[in-house]
């Protein structure tokens, strides 16, 4: 954000301009953007930590409903970060135990829903809905895990409760950079300011 970069015209026209992610580097736009960067303060440091695919990842993870499978226990379970790490890995998310924050009371008596926090890039904490389910001891055609809709659920934290900079970052549509690079080798480039 705030960098002046050269990009192909097709990338500018088809993606950056339409998504309002960049503008021409006129003196007025540069002054306006520098004011916006100053008002963001600490949030700029957070946005700098987020990588190229962070927007798509955050949008996808916000709607996650994670099934956590444990063997039946008459005394209940003490949930650990390792349990959540394995459950996340089963749905294709590789997270370190440092990025997982357990619920306030990790000793769970009955199977059911709970909420934990997953921190992305040590910058953005997201509340994730999870359901603890008992793994059946005998094979069944359909289990409780099969009935859980894992992706595309409403987020636990509404947009209004997110930090404004993170909310803007998450709600801006992602750019398909691979599609924009399919241009002829003789492309003209112009200067633009990235938002």
From TrEMBL:
One annotated Gene Ontology cellular component of this protein: ribosome
Span of the signal peptide: none
Record Gene3D superfamilies: Ribosomal protein L9, N-terminal domain
Chain ranges of the Ribosomal protein L9 domain: 2-32
Keywords: Ribonucleoprotein, Ribosomal protein
Annotated family: Belongs to the bacterial ribosomal protein bL9 family.
Protein name: 39S ribosomal protein L9, mitochondrial
């Amino acid at each position: 954000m705030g960098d002046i970069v050269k990009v192909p015209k097709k990338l500018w026209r088809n993606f950056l301009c339409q998504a309002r992610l960049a503008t021409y580097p006129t003196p007025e736009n540069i002054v306006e953007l520098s004011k916006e960067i100053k008002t963001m303060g600490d949030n700029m440091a957070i946005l700098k930590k987020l990588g190229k695919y962070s927007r798509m990842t955050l949008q996808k993870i916000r709607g996650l409903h994670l099934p956590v499978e444990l063997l039946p226990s008459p005394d209940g379970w003490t949930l650990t970060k390792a349990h959540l790490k394995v459950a996340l890995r089963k749905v294709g998310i590789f997270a370190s135990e440092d990025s997982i924050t357990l619920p306030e009371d990790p000793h769970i008596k009955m199977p059911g829903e709970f909420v934990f926090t997953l921190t992305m890039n040590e910058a953005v904490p997201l509340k994730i809905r999870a359901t603890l389910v008992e793994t059946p001891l005998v094979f069944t055609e359909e289990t409780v895990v099969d009935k859980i809709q894992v992706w595309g659920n409403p987020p636990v934290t509404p947009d209004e409760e997110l930090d404004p900079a993170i909310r803007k970052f998450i709600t801006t549509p992602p750019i398909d950079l691979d599609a924009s690079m399919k241009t002829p080798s003789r492309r003209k480039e112009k200067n633009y300011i990235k938002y």
